[in-house]
Amino acid sequence: MRTSVNIPEEVLGTFDETWQTQGMESRSRAVREAIHEYVERHTTLEEIDGDAVAAIAFDYEHTLIIEELHTLQHEFEDVIATTHHLHQGEWCLESVFCHGPADRIRELVYQLRDFDAVGRVNVTFLQPTQ
């Protein structure tokens, strides 16, 4: 199936450099792989049930979001065990380690992804338990 997507030129340029450096055969192949990885990551996030242990890593522009981020972290203190924070100029990298109901951790991930000042949010379920 053919489709079209609008991608900023600088993002596409970086994407092309990446797949070419890795020796992939085509942009289409690289896009298919990226889509598969996205689907797998999202499906895993949705399938975890019951109590879970998770690590969430995200980056954000400090001055645009810090108050809202602190409020959100207090709202989820029932599942947030600890956090780790690094500064890089105006941008920060935060790791949040969670333990508790998977649906509650999932809700935190989705709320973090809703902030415009958050660049990326990645979650790894370290030890799903039943």
From TrEMBL:
Q: Which residues form the Ribbon-helix-helix protein CopG domain?
A: 1-41
Superkingdom, according to UniProt?
Archaea
Q: Name one GO molecular function term.
A: DNA binding
Instruction: List, alphabetically, the InterPro entries matched.
Output: Acetolactate_synth/TF_NikR_C (IPR027271), ACT-like_dom_sf (IPR045865), Arc_rbn_hlx_hlx (IPR013321), CopG (IPR002145), CopG/NikR_regulator (IPR050192), Ribbon_hlx_hlx (IPR010985), TF_NikR_Ni-bd_C (IPR014864)
State whether keyword Transcription regulation applies: yes
Give any single GO term for biological process. regulation of DNA-templated transcription
Quick check: keyword Chaperone in the entry?
Answer: no
Q: Record's Pfam families?
A: NikR_C, RHH_1
Give UniProt keywords alphabetically: DNA-binding, Transcription, Transcription regulation
Which residues belong to any copy of the Transcription factor NikR nickel binding C-terminal domain?
A: 53-125
The record's family statement is: Belongs to the transcriptional regulatory CopG/NikR family.
Can you name this protein?
Transcriptional regulator
